[in-house]
Amino acid sequence: MVFTIQVNNKKIRAEKGETILSALNRNGIIIPTLCRMKDFTPTGACRMCVVEVEGRDRLVTACSQPVEEWMKIKTHSPRVITARKTIVELLLSNHPDDCLYCDRNLDCELQRLAEELNISERRIRSKKIKPRLDQSSPAIVRELSKCILCGRCIRVCEEIITSTSIDFINKGKSTHVGPAMDRDFNFSSCIHCGQCVVVCPTAALHEKHNITEVQEYLNKPEILKVIQYSPLVPVGIAEELGIRYNRDFDRIINSVLRKIGFDKVFNTGTGTDICISELTDQLMERIENKADKPLYITACPAWVKYAEQFMPSVIPDLSTIKSPQQITGVLIKTLVAGQSAVKPEKIFSVSVTPCTAMKFEARRDGMMRKGISDVDAVLTIRELARLIRLYGIDVTNADQEPADEPMEGRSSVSAIAEVSGGLAEGVIRSAWFRISKTEAERQLFKKLRSGNSFREASFSIGEIEINVAVVDGLKGLEKLKASQAAGKRYDLIEVMTCPGGCINGAGLTFNGSKDEKKSRAKMIYQADESDAVSLPCKSPVLRNLYEKLIKENKEISDKKIFYTHFEKRNVLL
Amino acid sequence: MDDLKKFMIEKVLLFESDTLPAETEKVLQEVRREKTGFPVIYISSGTSSIIAGYEKTRSVIQAYIDDNALKASLIKVGCLGPANFEPLVCIHLPGKNKLYFRNITEEKVELLLNGVFHNDINEDDLAGQQGSHGFEMWSGIPFIEEMPFFARQKKIVMNNCGCYDPESIVEYIARNGFRAFAKAIRHYTFEEVCDIIERSGLRGRSGGGYLTGLKWKQALNTSSTSRYLICNAKESDPGAFTDRTLLESDPFRLIEGIAIASYAIGASNAIIFFRKGSEHARQIIQLAINKAREFGLLGHNIFSSGYNLDIVIRKEPGAFVCGEETALINTIEGRRGMPQLKPPFPTTSGLFSKPTVINNVETLMNVPVIMQNGPEWFRTLGTENSPGTKIFAIAGKGRMSGVVEVEMGTSVRTILEDIADGIKEGKEFKAIQVGGVSGSFITRDNLDMTIDFDVMKAKGIGMGAGGFVIIDENTCMVDLVRYYMEFMRNESCGKCIPCREGTGRMLEILESIIKKPLNEDSGTTLERFKGVMQLESIASVMKDTSLCGLGQTAPNPFLSALKNFREEFEEHIFDRKCRANICRGLRTFSIDVDKCTGCTACASKCPVNAIYGTRLQPFFIVEEKCTGCGICFDICKFSAITVK
Amino acid sequence: MYYISMVLMSTKIDLILKKYKPGRREDLIPMLQEIQDDSGYLSEEAIIRAGSFVGLSTTKIYGLATFYDQFRFLPAGKVQIKICNGTSCFLNGSQYVINKIMEETGLDPGQTGRDGIFSYEIETCMGGCNHGPVISVNGEYHTHIKADQLPELIKKLRYIIENE
After folding, report:
1. How far is B229 from chain A (nearest CA, A)?
2. In CATH, what class is B587-643?
């Protein structure tokens, strides 16, 4: 039912059942919010969205109050503005105020609110909150003094990621957000997915920076500086730098990275191709042996940690293939080292990803051989953008260059692997091609590409039938378990921690709207339609690697270095 | 015992007529100990009595009875009301009026009992005799019911308090108990019970004053198949102890009230939510629930009516805020006790998302009385829109203190001057604080205000749950407001910003008013003034925007004190003076040269080294350095240090 | 010795958990209360066990338990003092009593000293409004307490514990 309500003495249309906030937003009136997150039930914690409703004693929170026909609302009356302003002033009264040094300077919701509400004087004064810094995690830093206790991180961690690694601790003035027993992050069940970082309005939670370390090595002449970037990086960098992305940017990025000072630039997509190709081998082998249990595949280190903690029973079925980043990493430390005649310890290998958990993965046990890490430093896309700005590189005026051999290119499906369902699609399409020697129709994969947090599809390749399940965001695990409990059997199960996959990773720009995130996926799918090299087996780069370089290198010819091991983890769950 | 139980159930509870036959009444009289051939000694046993030394007194009395081989019984009863009379002992000699003795600590027992049993009554300990029909009165002994403390009260809800053994269900039934419940489940429908309560005009006694019957109907008129009743016995306001006293003194009436209320809303699960400190009350209630279950008053298919009810007890784990309805529900569900957005209201979606009615103890204890006497009778009590009585816990500086029940419409002055008998030690009256930590002050100007939801609301004063704290001239209002604010700051759940940060900032500003900073330069003075100017605006934003009642009402004591005692605030801020001499930080100390012996005791203990001097010569205090902590004042053996 | 006490505690927790049905969140608080009544505090093990019993993460249990004043995560002292800070006791000077206890024991409310002798808590109202300030020492009430009585009381209590 549609009716009109009166807002600021003007009539606007509202629908029965919607909140005041949604009616206002649809009618072009912006109300500030802090604790609100789209698609979550409102908690009413921040009180920023208060409006005046005639006939009510107190101000009303627009985010939660349903509209009613009789309502006369004032959204920016002096009373409302004073209230909002005072709330922000109260938050600022004991805030550390180190904006200039803050990770979220110029990109902070609290800062923006203070500016929007025209706060120019400190009227309420209090002692600064004692700084408390938790840098124990390889991926996420917790700065409690900057936390405004909106609770968004807690809700994401519990309701979306389902790992429930953080919660409010204590009450009242000593409330803070932290893991179990108020320990540091490294002891906790945190899976480093970084979704909390994405929703944090301030810098209370942010990724651990490796820029300084990278800079330091960039200045060492005796070191071979190598960088790899995941297929999503060109898109992500364009977004973060505020320029329109087009396909040329996939080549511009190479020259930009070289300008920063990297000697060699590789495409992580080559690693993805290897990953898909190895997984296809595994799947085919399982099908041949008529294996009873499903093969769990993933490129997501956060899910791996989740499984190690919460679902150790799936570890035997979890493919032990390393992630594309690590595969590319080992190839750099072996093949590239050999080609360039540099000792592996003289290579500094950096990876750029849209993910925070990759920082954790690079530090995992089993990601190191003879004391040499597969990957030395992991940067998020945001960090790389900082590096580009720091080195004063004008991206719009950079040349197009190819990446370096031997990992200079990738198949289009390797980019799809960064969207939820993509890795499974890649493996099935490869298997399809191997069995039937023709490419599978893209339409067949529609069911895997979008939908709920749990998707399933069945593929018939000749006489073989393959049941595939895709868990898009860990919330879907519940449905997977329920489906399995009901007797459904799967051959291949792909799990991604972040809803939507890496395109919603925590290393991408903060301001990405939902549309931007959708367009990330769309661009990847479009590229796949037109690219000639659609599958790993069609990739000349991969053929060269497999048939020549890897085969001829005794150290790696058994491909053992592409595999690692996973085991049950003892953390406070 | 089983015979008595059977008798009580069949001949009393299930008896079809309202008037019982004479032979039944006779048995009940015996149960009520109205006719006994031997002396009965009653001793009050509430928390207040326990703190005052009930345990010791009781054991000494028991020893006295045993040693002298007396044929007398010692019965512990609930609390009669006057807390300053505890331990209160009542002696009932056969055929004579009951005698009440106050403050009977263990050492007084022997003398007292010797006296009473040998007709030589010690007047000092005597509170008075209680006149009852058919008993011989004591000559020359005043009647306690004529004491203003009792005379001005109207005991409706509390009429059993202090009269029977709270562990004896039989005594409760003999006092007309559980008959209303037995009647309700057998003869009334859910709607009819709701109707009766709605017609009685009973309003929630927890402060808001919402019509209880209406609240019940809202829950009843939902389509849900299961509903819950929660008795909120949280009462964690500092200085309020009405619920605790009621629970300890008349637990069965609460059970009956809960049972009727649960029946009225069609709930078969009721929960009593206890505060964590009331261990004694909890034990009594648990015992009462067990007894009621034994008598078939709780459980499956009660009295073959087809109605099931179970009551469970939940101990509050210690958070003031979980007295708020939604926070309370969260706590029972096993979550952090943080309030939630309303709507939905608990009556539509409460505990486990089922319709839930939350009533406080006093409200529920009114229910059996209304069911017994009818809504019309209840309407004759109190005022038009606030029928019935209200129970207050008088505390603070009154001469009398304790739990009292007054008819609605009684003036505050009556409670202060008659019931509480004025101010202790002849001090000047300053204010009365009602409504607990989030309440307001009643000043001299408002003393003639009557106790009535609407009258008080019109004056901007919330009735609250029953706190009634009398404040005299020796109390500093700024310090008192700071105390309330500190309480609120500690108890804020931390969820919404205005409350969490607001209480903290307000407390800090109030603290800056009552403390002397170590090095006050012009800058910090300016800061202090700036802070003071923000107090009111923070307070009004907190009231306007906080999520739950705690934050919305947290500034009340401050705003009320500022309205009524502005000059005290100004004195503190501008003159740096505290007229009640409470704010230690503002005191100036000096050393009387004539009295000082130069012992150095003060100088060695001064935490800021503000005292100088030569040994055996008079010392002096450097005022600029002094923080006013008062350690020197306490330590000086020669009273040489003076305070201004 | 340490090991034995750990095993003992573990079986004690088991005994308590047995009384409840697994997976019911609403039983969580009563369960924790019972464990605390039994062992005086919530050990890390108790929190983990209660969590897996109800099917919640330790994070949630810890977050919940820290919200409420009742729960403590370290053993209480041998002498447990409770100080009433209700309005009535406040008007009669409970603040001085609290400050004095703080000074004498060197502890904050809820803390336990390294020697394990004292711990104290501040109660909102103990119900002895007419006898304030009221404190209770291991359950025994002391009424009309004045700050200057405390040093001697504390000294006496310390002496008793140390010479037990």
Report:
1. 25
2. alpha beta
